[in-house]
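Operator note (shift B, R.M.): manual run for AMP-dependent synthetase/ligase domain-containing protein requested after the automated queue skipped it. Running by hand, logging everything below so the morning shift can see what happened. Input copied straight from the record, untouched. If output looks odd, do not overwrite the archive copy; leave it for review.
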Amino acid sequence: MPDFNIDNLTVILLALLAALAIYHRFFSAPSPLVHSLLLSKQSEVSAVRKSGGTGIYRSWATGQGTPLTVRPANTVKTVQDVVRPPKADPKMKNTRPDQRCILDVQLTDEALAEIVRLVPLGIHILFPGASPMSASSIVTLIPPSPNSALPLLLLSLSATPDRPLAILPNPRLLTAALTGHGSHPAACIVVVFVDLLAEVVEQVWEGDGDKVGILVIGDEKKLQSSVVEEARRKGLTVHWWEEIWEVAESELADKVQLQDAHFSDVHSYYYSESENPEKPIIVKVTHMNVTAGIASLLSIFPADKRPSGKLRDVVASAVRLDTPLGMTIALASIWNGAGYRMIGSQEPTFDIEDIECVEHLTALADPAKDLPKPTILFITPKYHRALLDGLQFSYEARPWASLAARHKARDLSYGHVSRDGIWDKILWSGMRENAVGGIAGQKLRAVILVGDAPSPTALGASHLLLSLPLTRLHPSLYSSGPVFVSHFYDLQSPGINHVLKQVDMWESTEKSHCGPPASNVEVMLKGEGVDEAHDKGSKSIEGRVFIRGPSVLERVDGGGRVQDGWVDAGEHAKIQTNGTFIVDGLAK
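Run finished. Output pasted below as returned.
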């Protein structure tokens, strides 16, 4: 047997290597992003309850007995205040960019404020039908596409008390909106995309043609002049969107006196389809509902992580702009000085059967458009799945991926994740830049999943592949803001096998929690088994979700259930011991 001579230097080096390995394994754990005690109790429940229901649950940060927030700042009392940024301190350097991207259009704050000022002036001049004392509504039939949604956003920013909006998600609801059924003021204007002009003209003419005007968008070259002229011969009042600027800057505008909005005034009505196509769901949104929704949405971010002009943020949202939450995301981004872009089909259509999620995400990073990449994503489950599948495919092509994932998974087990490690520079950074157009690259700093929470396996894989916390936000048709939302730094999920190539992220049907109630929402569960669960001291209580708060909307179509101010959200959920909720589907 040969002799091995080991000198003192070799012994020292081996001892040093062993010491470093032991230190790295047992003593160099990263600090968690949030203390585990803050995640162990995320809701606070009232001391008393009524039979058949749970106590009232509030976010732990809000607490019981505290007034619920109704606006993001004292200066924001109506939607119009969103485009009135606070006056800059002359001693402070202006850190807002000169222009920001709003629905793929570069605008300064001054230009946006001027446009919002002109829109209601032009509309009142072109369509002078209603008197200031009698309210009428503006029905919008605008596809939720990045290329066509800007007029809808401008109309929302400039809505006046005497002409609230009635926002439709598809043309099938136009008949219901024109008749109104007493749910909202009668329609005086239909704002329609040019592709639907002929059908809308026919429908308006067959109804109250002399009382309802038509405003056409998406036809800058006036290619539909023949349809417009034919409608005018029938006695209809029809104008193009571009005419607004001509008349709003004329002398006629000096004679127009617009009503100032009050926080309790109605801002808009949102339609959605129900099981009965002739009886859509209609919810009423006041200015206070909108400002409360903005406050609730911004509260999901830590103070230094909110969308900001100082950080040159660009928010990209896959939540349709013709929904209350989708509009709130846009308004919150604008108020905070961030850019706002939409994720979706470039084609101005209402119903898309097969959503090309990868194509839509890649379009956000298209270098040919010369538009900024998003830094904050609000994505739906379909887009989240497409993003993770693209990242996993890129991950599988990397030779050192399993080793890098092992190190990342260790940090996640301690509640820590970052994009600054050595493996991020070696592998993760390049992997994310080369997948799905680089949308998940280094500029991205926050991802909010809007909709059903993913399975625990997919949640852990998301943390690993994105190297970012995944905030889960549960929306409702009856709320302008989130109903439930997880802690921004909540990384709790089952351990991820470092060999991610062997993991099917979407096999499990189990759902992770979607957090406690949002900051200004109260939640109560009702059901037959609630009393029995309380009597037995059950750790898991489940029932039908009822919500209340300043961001909760009133249903005005005569349907739904409202009990003592509580609105039935129509969903079933169960409460976990740490105060988080798992929403497992529609209530039966």
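Quick read of the result: The longest helix spans residues 8-26. The domain at 354-586 is CATH 2.30.38.10 (Luciferase; domain 3).
Leaving this for review. - R.M.
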